[in-house]
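Severity: low
Component: inverse-folding endpoint
Summary: output formatting inconsistent between runs
Steps to reproduce: submit the following structure tokens with default settings.
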């Protein structure tokens, strides 16, 4: 037999996992047409022990499959995992904990569960007994183990530690955190009992029924020991401190043919309870596979076996399962980040551009304000110069005007003196004369005030005003001169004009300029009888659009076409001593008031210079009687 399987791959694998090749037990082999059924058996206590316990079971199978035979492949935990992964075996016979791990990792499926010789009923027979010495009355419950020294078989032992660990944790005692000391004895299991019995440790953890078995063998006195929190499980003959879990299963690999699995299961179910194989394995036959979910739950609770790295695996699993979504989310996040950065960058660039543009704009606005202020200042200067200039031309007129009141004052004063000297001073006559003197002085004062007002350097101050006032003032300033030259200046004023929004002195300046030009255009030397024919008429009224219109009509030499074309140009003059600024300034003033300056021919000969101004206020365009 050894010759048949000695060189097989399975035997080599068994060697590889550290077990003697000789342990691979060739069983009854019929015709060698098909390879023997390979049963991997967990040999946690070494090959010899496994051989003794399980070789008869494998031999039983070999007898049931005479043509193929069956062979046992003893494996330790790592070897079992490798063999299942490599598909080097067909079935596994292993403990409950290892089965659950293989099920989770490699998809092995139980086909039968051991029927424990201690459990009459269900087959759930694996639990833990937590044992203390009978005289330790201070330890009654699992919770009492806190701070004690406890001994168990092995951290990987299912009944010998893990089941008890779960129960202890549920009782609030973490074996790894709450004990004074946790020791592992290793096999054989009676070491634990001896340590408890001898007081080396406070408590020991054993697979349920081990105590009873050893007591039956006479290796320990059961009455000297006590199991903590013993549970009454119907049909279960042993003392147990925990829930019971299914016993060892026989499981098929995912690759094992269904039909073969079925046949093997049927063969196992058919094993009599008292079969030598069952007796050797300490069981009483096989039953239908039990539910191992409670074991999964326990492992999950303890985070051991397949659930050792539950947290990380879950996350990793999740990542693997939903990688498309994760990738999409990552891409979206990346896009969003890039987009945000880009937008931020663009905003920064635009803000910088706007700030620069704003700076330029502010600078330009300041420049413009300065330029406008300069232009206004120039205009004021020019206005002023023009007024001084026009007044200079009127100097003789002013002298004449002032001469009249001054002469009258002198006459009245001399008359008074004479009367006083002659001693014929009638107080009533003297009083009348001094009143006349005062009146004439007032008149002279008015003339001076008017002149001072006219020439004062000032900024434009538009206010609602009557144009007629400005016309009268302008005529008063040049009337003397006109009379000297025997040219009547005749006002023809509409007393029913709406007010205009204008600067009084500037309008006066314009009218004075137009009258002065009219005087200049009118030739000298007419006889007194001609006076009416040479009169200058200053007219005010409203034009067709409701605007206020002022015209100065003369009977002078009129406007030659070439003169008319350049009339308003600065420095255009036809006069020997002229400056040519008068009309250009007049136009600037009138247009600044929203009006227009124009020149036409006087049908009776001469020129008509005039301007229009918009009427002030809401009544601007209404009929005169409404405007009042
Ligand atoms: P100035 O009086 O210093 O010459 P103006 O600008 O006031 O400057 O006038 C420009 C020119 O327009 C005058 O030189 C004159 O030739 C002409 N002009 C102005 N008013 C009249 C007028 N009423 N009749 C004829 N020509 C005129």
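Observed output (run 2 of 3):
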């Amino acid at each position: 037999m050894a010759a048949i399987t000695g060189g097989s791959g399975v035997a080599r694998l068994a060697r590889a996992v550290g077990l003697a090749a000789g342990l691979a037990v060739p069983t009854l082999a019929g015709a060698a047409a098909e390879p023997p059924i390979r049963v991997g058996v967990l040999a946690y206590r070494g090959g010899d022990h496994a051989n003794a316990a399980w070789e008869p079971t494998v031999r039983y199978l070999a007898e049931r499959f005479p043509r193929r035979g069956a062979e046992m492949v003893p494996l330790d935990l790592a070897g079992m995992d490798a063999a299942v992964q490599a598909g080097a075996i067909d079935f596994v016979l292993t403990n409950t904990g290892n089965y659950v791990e293989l099920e989770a990792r490699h998809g092995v499926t139980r086909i039968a569960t051991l029927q424990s010789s201690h459990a009459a009923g269900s087959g759930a027979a694996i639990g833990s007994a937590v044992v203390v010495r009978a005289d330790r009355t201070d330890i009654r419950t699992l919770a009492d183990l806190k701070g004690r020294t406890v001994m168990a078989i092995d951290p990987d032992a299912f009944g010998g530690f893990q089941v008890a660990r779960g129960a202890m944790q549920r009782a609030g005692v973490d074996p790894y955190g709450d004990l004074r000391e946790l020791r592992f004895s290793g096999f054989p299991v009676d070491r634990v009992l001896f340590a408890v019995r001898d007081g080396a440790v406070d408590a020991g953890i054993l697979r349920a029924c081990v105590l009873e078995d050893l007591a039956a063998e006479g290796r320990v006195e059961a009455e000297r020991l006590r199991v903590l929190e013993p549970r009454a499980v119907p049909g279960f003959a042993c003392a147990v401190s925990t829930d019971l879990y299914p016993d060892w299963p026989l499981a098929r690999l995912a690759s094992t043919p269904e039909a073969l699995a079925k046949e093997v299961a049927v063969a196992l179910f058919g094993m009599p309870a008292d079969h030598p194989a069952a007796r050797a394995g300490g069981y009483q036959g096989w039953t239908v596979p039990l539910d191992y979910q409670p074991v999964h739950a326990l492992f999950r609770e303890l985070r051991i076996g397949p659930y050792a790295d539950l947290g990380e695996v879950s996350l990793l699993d999740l990542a693997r399962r939903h990688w498309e979504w994760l990738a999409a989310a990552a891409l979206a996040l990346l896009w969003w980040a890039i987009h945000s950065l880009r937008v931020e960058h663009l905003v920064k660039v635009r803000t910088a551009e706007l700030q620069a543009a704003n700076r330029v704009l502010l600078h330009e606005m300041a420049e413009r304000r300065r330029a406008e202020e300069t232009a206004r200042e120039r205009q004021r200067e020019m206005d002023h110069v023009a007024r001084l200039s026009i007044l200079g031309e009127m100097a003789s007129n002013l002298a004449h005007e002032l001469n009249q009141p001054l002469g009258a004052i002198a006459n009245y004063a001399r008359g008074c003196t004479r009367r006083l000297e002659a001693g014929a001073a009638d107080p009533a006559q003297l009083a009348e004369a001094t009143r006349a003197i005062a009146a004439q002085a007032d008149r002279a004062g008015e003339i001076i005030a008017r002149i001072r007002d006219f020439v004062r350097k000032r900024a434009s101050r538009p206010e609602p005003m009557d144009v007629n006032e400005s016309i009268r003032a302008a005529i008063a300033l040049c009337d003397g001169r006109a009379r000297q030259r025997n040219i009547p200046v005749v006002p023809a004023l509409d007393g029913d004009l709406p007010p205009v929004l204008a600067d009084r002195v500037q309008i006066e300046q314009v009218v004075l300029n137009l009258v002065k030009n009219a005087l200049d255009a009118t030739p000298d030397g007419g006889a007194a009888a001609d006076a009416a024919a040479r009169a200058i008429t200053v007219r005010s009224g409203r034009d067709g659009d409701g605007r206020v219109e002022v015209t100065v009509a003369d009977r002078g030499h009129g406007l030659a076409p070439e003169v008319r074309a350049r009339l308003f140009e600065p420095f255009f003059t036809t006069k020997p001593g002229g400056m040519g600024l008068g009309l250009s300034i007049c136009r600037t003033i009138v247009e600044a008031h929203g009006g227009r300056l124009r020149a036409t021919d006087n049908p009776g000969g001469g020129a008509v210079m005039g301007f229009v101004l918009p009427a002030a206020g809401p009544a601007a365009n209404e009929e005169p009687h409404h405007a009042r």
